[in-house]
Each structure stands twice: as C-alpha cells, then as structure tokens.
Amino acid sequence: MPSYNHETPGANAVDMQDQALPPRTEEAYTRWIERFVRFHRAAAGEWVHPSDMSAEHVETFLTYLAVHRRVAATLGSDLATSRSE
C-alpha cells in the first residue's frame, strides 16, 4: 500500500496514481484511510493527525473491525502488513 502523505492535502491520490494502481484499488485504499482517521476522531472526540498515530492506533482499529464489524481477519492482517511496508 502506498504511504500516507499527511503533509499535502490530496497528495495521497497522487502517490497512489504514481504507483499505477487499478482505480478500484486506489478507491478502496482511500476509503480505508478515511475510515481509519474518522474512527480515531470519534474515539478521541477530536481529529487526530495521522502523523500522531502509532501502531497502537492501528491495533485498536483492526480489533474494532474484527470484533464489532466482523471484518475478516485476513483483511486486518493485510492492512497491518501494508502499513509496515
């Protein structure tokens, strides 16, 4: 998964386009980034900048998806792996 560029608004789409990802994959990655950021906004009561998030934030989000949203464990491991690349 392409890295998240929090410095420049809209840069994530450009980064993903540079990687020549299929449009649907790009859309899916963008939606997951949005869900991740919104999840932590709801939990903290305020916006948390992605640069201020840690591996603990990722674990919390993946646990929420697995337990409360019943998202497949393989998706969670894919997302965790892509974050570390």
Describe this structure in words.
With 85 residues, the chain is mainly α. The protein has a single domain (11-84), classed as Tyrosine recombinase, N-terminal domain (DNA polymerase, domain 1, Orthogonal Bundle), CATH 1.10.150. 65% of the residues lie in helices and 0% in strands. The chain contains 4 helices and no strands. Helix 3 (55-67) packs antiparallel against helix 4. The chain starts with 10 loop residues before the first helix and ends with a helix. The model has no long low-confidence stretch (mean pLDDT 75).
Which helices and strands occur, and which strands form pairs?
Layout: H1 11-18, H2 23-44, H3 55-67, H4 73-84
Helix pairs in contact: 3-4
Could you provide a short overview of the structure?
With 85 residues, the chain is mostly helical.
Instruction: Provide the succession of SSEs.
Output: HHHH
The radius of gyration computed from the alpha-carbon positions, rounded to a whole number of angstroms, is: 13 Å
Query: What percentage of amino acids are in beta strands?
Result: under 5%
* Name of the CATH superfamily: Tyrosine recombinase, N-terminal domain
Number of domains: 1
Count of helices? 4
Span of the ends, CA to CA = 7 Å
Helical content (DSSP H or I, runs of 4+): 55-70%
Largest sheet: none
Q: Residue ranges: pLDDT <50 for 5 or more in a row? A: none
Shape descriptor reads: globular
Could you say which structural class the secondary elements and strand pairing correspond to?
mainly alpha
Q: What's the CATH first level?
A: Mainly Alpha
